[in-house]
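Troubleshooting log. The previous structure file for this entry was overwritten by mistake, so regenerating from the original sequence record. Sequence copied from the archived sheet and checked twice against the printout by T.R.
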Amino acid sequence: MDSPVPVGSFFDVFPLSVLTTSTLAHLEGIRPQSRFDQRRFRMNVIVKTEHPGFVENGWIGHNLALGDGTRINVALLDPRCVMTTLAQDGLAQDTDVLRTLVRHNREQVGDLGRFPCAGVYAVVAAPGTVRIDDRVLLN
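Regenerated output below.
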């Protein structure tokens, strides 16, 4: 599939990854025995949201305005892999993290197929300054 990342750039997949507190809360509600700590997902941006569920699934093709003039284009759902299940500082290994996503948020990712997803990938449309607790607007 075509990438919006400029040729010669180096990123895991996309320059930015975004996750909502709604997704984390929803996952915790589905499987309270697991810890859906934001560190498991290695996101650049965590957005505090009030609506329940996998809110960012509906953001593909939209823009987010963040902080002081920053604009990002939401490009693709973020497919998840075994990395979310691995032990790290303060978090035990937990294969049910990925299993929960497989059961409850397996989504079509571009033309690549269906994958367990949490969050979205994005690219910067307009740079700016972003700070903790800045307002985020979906366009």
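Strands lie at 16-20, 45-47, 63-66, 70-79, 106-109, 113-126, 136-138. Archived copy saved in two places this time.
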